[in-house]
Design brief:
The first copy, chain A, has 203 residues and is α+β, with helices and mostly antiparallel strands. Chain A has seven helices and four strands; from the N terminus they run E-H-E-H-E-E-H-H-H-H-H. At the A-B interface, helix 3, helix 4 and helix 5 of A face helix 3, helix 4 and helix 5 of B.
């Protein structure tokens, strides 16, 4: 098994944090996305969409999409459960994973990709107005999340889950996207301190 | 249990098709999105993000996000499996569900929301350039999917899954978004004929 990894990019990191929380170690194949190596043969023959990460199993099976790769590891090693337990628990984690991804992660990514000069070759065409429109969307969701985190330890409930991983990565991604967590979002700040202090956050 | 439903909108339909494939019947509470009823108390007290569908269980538990609601029903009634079976099978369905959603469904939705005059109050600000930029993204993904569907019955493999539901709904959504399936995408056309002929497609 080997994981084609993309270094600092958010989606590859999502899988590395997940693996760290599971206590799993998978051989990494580093791919230099800054040098556009993800558009070369090694990646594009495995994932024609030319995106990372890509997991290759020993029998040659290819899995792409960070959350799908995480789901694979959840199935082969259920403990600790990071996608929830029971019908309601699993649905609640999926609900929060999607809420955070659709309303925060995607908004931050759009702001970064459509506004950052380094993204000119990546996002064609760059549409700065769309990048700007996403900044208040991200902040608005953080205000909603702040109310939810009042009295709740983690995003989907009392346990750390993949929704927290997506949230952590989205907030770290806000720095290059030049969006700030509002200072009065004290519950988000407390939660962010907690999740970014876990050893997995350095993955 | 009751499902707050949004009529013709794509995400509510995604859950209705899923339930039809499971042979499940859930009492629906119709919400007229055209009249902005999803912004009124009945929905916004249950989902402050004011989006549909919303599932309310008998004990008052609220689940939102179409795919999370589908996941709940998959857990309570596993047959027929629409999220895959086994670690690789589940991961492969999730991979395809995400590929179709991120590259097709979201692109079609962006074209519709940023270009259609009826969406002016919904998507603020409407950015026509972003809507236009998404049309070729949707077509590009359909060409990739066409190659994948050469010799494969359904999007994620030999069985109908939630990835097919997302694909069906995305393609039906292309009509109001004014995007066409390229006529030479014969495998996509064949697959679309098959999935849209199933009784569930009328849900």
């Amino acid at each position: 098994m080997k994981l084609f990894d993309g270094g600092r990019a958010p989606n590859p990191r999502r899988v590395r944090v997940f693996l760290a929380e599971k206590g799993l170690s998978v051989p990494l194949v580093p791919v230099d996305m800054g040098a556009m190596e993800h558009r070369r043969e090694a990646v594009s023959s495995r994932n024609p969409l030319q995106r990372l990460p890509v997991l290759e199993l020993d029998d040659g099976t290819i899995l792409t999409e960070s959350v799908a790769i995480c789901r694979y590891f959840e199935e082969v090693q259920p403990e600790p459960p990071l996608f929830g337990t029971g019908a309601v628990g699993k649905a609640r984690v999926e609900m929060w994973q999607r809420r955070v991804e659709l309303n925060l992660f995607n908004a931050v990514a759009a702001a970064f990709r459509h506004l950052h000069p380094a993204m000119k070759e990546w996002e064609v065409p760059q549409i700065p107005a769309w990048g700007e429109a996403n900044k208040p969307k991200a902040v608005e969701f953080l205000r909603f999340l702040d109310g939810e985190l009042d009295g709740r330890e983690f995003i989907a409930g009392g346990s750390y889950t993949i929704a927290d991983i997506t949230g952590l990565i989205a907030i770290d991604f806000m720095k290059p996207a030049r969006i700030q967590v509002p200072p009065d979002c004290t519950h988000v700040q407390r939660w962010y301190q907690a999740v970014s202090s876990r050893p997995s956050a350095t993955a």
